[in-house]
Amino acid sequence: MNDNAASALTDALRVLPSVNELMITASGQSFAADFGNAKLAELSRRTLEQLRSELLNGKGSSDNDRDRMLIRAEQMLNAEISGDLSRRQVPVINATGVIVHTNLGRAPLSDGAKAAIFSAATYSSVEYDLETGKRGRRGGYAEDLLCELTGAEAAVIVNNCAAAALLVLTVVAEGKEVVISRGELVEIGGDFRVPDVLERSGGALREVGTTNRTKLADYEKAIGENTSVILRVHPSNYKIIGFTATPLNAELAELAHRHGLVFYEDAGSGALIDLSEYGLGDEPLISRSISDGADVVTFSGDKLLGGPQSGLIVGRGDLVDRIRKHPMYRALRSDKLTYAALEATLGAYARGRALQEIPVLRMLSMDKVELESRTRAFEEKLHERFSRSSGWSVEMVENTSVVGGGSAPGVQPASYAIALASDLRSAEALGEALRKFRTPVVSRIHEGKLLLDLRTVFESQEDDLFEALVLLV
Ligand SMILES: *Cc1c(COP(=O)(O)O)cnc(C)c1O
Hints:
The chain is of the alpha/beta class. It has helices at residues 3-14, 19-23, 26-35, 37-56, 66-85, 111-120, 140-150, 161-173, 194-201, 216-222, 249-258, 286-291, 317-325, 327-332, 336-350, 354-357, 359-364, 368-386, 427-435, 462-470; strands at 93-94, 128-129, 134-135, 154-158, 177-181, 204-208, 227-233, 262-268, 296-300, 311-315, 392-400, 414-422, 441-442, 444-446, 449-452.
């Protein structure tokens, strides 16, 4: 560095604003009003460190004007602020076509469930009996609905299906042996591995059969003095095809009962109504598992069921009773907002309105012709705007949506998408710009094009999506 440059640098460092000067800028004060001074001080400090190191590394001009330096620092602070704000949980537009998108919060709730959460967010009768004025059964109404919808004797609700499985196995398998097919020792994703959960519960694993074929006789041979459970896990996220065999639920139940064992099925997603018309015939129908003789069944509330995050346990009255009385239940139980949303969601099933009211099911059962005309209309509207600028291509293409959330591997509802491409910007850059929109838009990239699948976009979000896209031009 020559002498001139060195003295310019010294001058520039001398006019760097202090943390306090940066905090009292308009940007700083408006952030502090919403998020507090401590957070602002941290972001301001970070901004100034970055600015100092940029100057030291010769990046940016070594300006020695105090006001201009403050403006530059404020701009950088604004970038820090938006980075910080983007880490908050905000609603997004899901244009990926993945219906149960785990990273986007799985099932979007029905209007009824959202309203129920809102009204339960104050004092509520969650665990209070209004008839007697005494303590009531927590979540009792939702649990009764589950019994009504599945034919089970009893039900109990916990935080998620992983918690449900851990709790059930702790109650029925602790210190005992659990027989399970090698084809069902699965990892569901997000660290839920069947053998690990079993180990945590204090049960011992007794694997039988092979990855692709397990026969009833394999189970029977493995049953010994210390066996307490036959466990069936629905392999939610993969499918073995070809030379395969596995006993029916009814056969496993009969075998279990003949030996005085519990037959437990972890259905994962499961379905409360028959969804085979939509390609989901492989998903266990919970009422069928119960009528086939399962003693206890667990499934998620926020996968195909379309409700809030929860783990639903249904089955024999005496088992559910033991589960509810176990100390671990107290640690895994749900909050009142979950019960409220479940009451509303299950209520839609009870009224026979699930396909119309529950978003996951509405998206899944969306008519292909309707989706086509909706996508076509959106594409024409976009064309009008994009054709005025050169270098853009907007077209409607065939696409496949995805059920997602570790449900229904291989089921890909035929769909349509808007494919967007620009001569000047990569699909990745377009995707990034869309994520920065006021309501972030999450899209998918395929063969260098940005794809937007309207199946998972609510009609009420279409105007916002349109606005986000038009801003790209
Ligand atoms: C998804 C799944 C789980 C875990 O459910 P969460 O509700 O995510 O905890 C457990 N078992 C099976 C078979 C699953 O598909």
